[in-house]
Predict the 3D structure of the following.
Amino acid sequence: MDFSGWQKLTLVDFDKHMATTLFTAGCDFRCPFCHNRDLVLNPSEAPVIPWDEIVSYLKKRKGILDGVVITGGEPTLMPDLADKLRDIKALGYAIKLDTNGSRPQVLKSLLEAHLVDYVAMDIKNSAEKYAETIGLPKVDMDAIRESISIIMKEAPDYEFRTTIFSELHNEESIRGIGELIHGAKRLFLQRYIDSEHCIQGGFHEVEKEKATAFADLLRNDVEQVSLRGYL
């Protein structure tokens, strides 16, 4: 399976690293606020980036770049992901993996093989609102909880993150997010930005004052809670 998107340089996607970002096509969620609509809904039509081309770039950029971000779509759906991560690791790069947490056993195997240095998992909402927030009739919350536990216990470093918008996030659901990740090290509340590239779009951002209040609520459960995308 090939990667379908590539941002060759990023200074913001992998903290303290100058990185390149690779996008997989396909996802098992249908989050209406997702900005990668084409990669999620039409994976068979996504472009194909030859792996040899990516490896060649990484070899040439050694000493300039020091990190690789793997995102999507949902990267854990890629059958040969571990093999590609081994190739990246052999070149000396740190790897950040973005995931929705739907495939905990894949996540566990990657961490046990020491193929991932940093995990960023999206926590979509409270358990009660999870399915609605990911655009599906139901969700396997056992898998989500297992991924949370694996990350907290086994990831070298990690963050959880929640994109908040007015239609589906309120004080009750924010408290539910805290219950899901109780004892976690780090959570970012991300500002929702509407875009024509969203799967659905048309939602409304949570104002900064209210987002700050949400963050305050979560500090009983999470060591570090920060806002992302707010000025």
